[in-house]
Automatic annotation (TrEMBL):
Substrate binds at residues 11, 32, 59-68, 118, 180, 189, 209-210. It comes from Cutibacterium equinum. Pathway: Pyrimidine metabolism; UMP biosynthesis via de novo pathway; UMP from orotate: step 2/2. PROSITE patterns: OMPDECASE (PS00156). It holds the Pfam family OMPdecase. This is Orotidine 5'-phosphate decarboxylase. InterPro entries: Aldolase_TIM (IPR013785), OMPdecase (IPR014732), OMPdecase_AS (IPR018089), OMPdecase_bac (IPR047596), OMPdeCOase_dom (IPR001754), RibuloseP-bd_barrel (IPR011060). Residues 5-225 form the Orotidine 5'-phosphate decarboxylase domain. HAMAP family: OMPdecase_type1_B.
Amino acid sequence: MDTSRPIIALDLPSAEAALDFVGKFDEPLFVKVGMELFYAAGPSVITSLKDAGHDVFCDLKLHDIPNTVKGAAASLSRLGADLLTVHAAGGKAMMEAALEGLGGAAQTTRVVAITQLTSTSPEALKAEQLIEVPLAESVRNYAQLAQSAGLAGVVCSAHEAADIASVTGPDFLRVTPGIRPAGAAVGDQSRVATPGNAASMGSSAIVVGRPITKADDPVAAYHAIRDEWNAGRRSA
Ligand code: C5P
């Protein structure tokens, strides 16, 4: 999995919009298909993106009983997903079932866990989930649980990446959204990092949506972000 490429979040309303967008690039990309696009366009958008030569991250945040998640992971890996997400809150048995669903040894799909959603506040953690430990401790706990289940890593904020690596070791992936080039619109993201900061704070891969998809020149925006990310990784 080539994480020198920023993963572009294709939060777009249709397969046509997604394929038009990737058609602007004359190089293989690593793209993320989330719920908006998947539920609008259906599974064929994944095969279309794969057929066009791109790596695909299926960010569908699976969370159900183990047998159902095993089947969902099997379906997504058959479509060619290179990376997919499950909720660590579904438990160790559910995460292990996701891996079982991937099937044979030739399968290259990797699975990463959502720990606590970055939209969950410390107050909601306590009041709604009845979790009394600090948010960072809950995130570390879920990361270790995901690692013990055999997953490849977690999705987290760049600000959590080093803390997670301190308990999981450096090879456990920290895939980080919430990336904004200096001066870009933050939108609804709260704890953002620049591509260079994400590299120095310990991200293993970055996910970037609107700073690329809404740019006047998406190809130039992508290359600038990719160059900053890789320069940061070399000096980290
Ligand atoms: O447009 P933007 O760069 O904010 O897109 C970030 C992408 O990462 C979106 O697809 C969003 O759903 C996803 N994401 C996130 N925060 C998380 C998990 C996923 O922003 N904690």
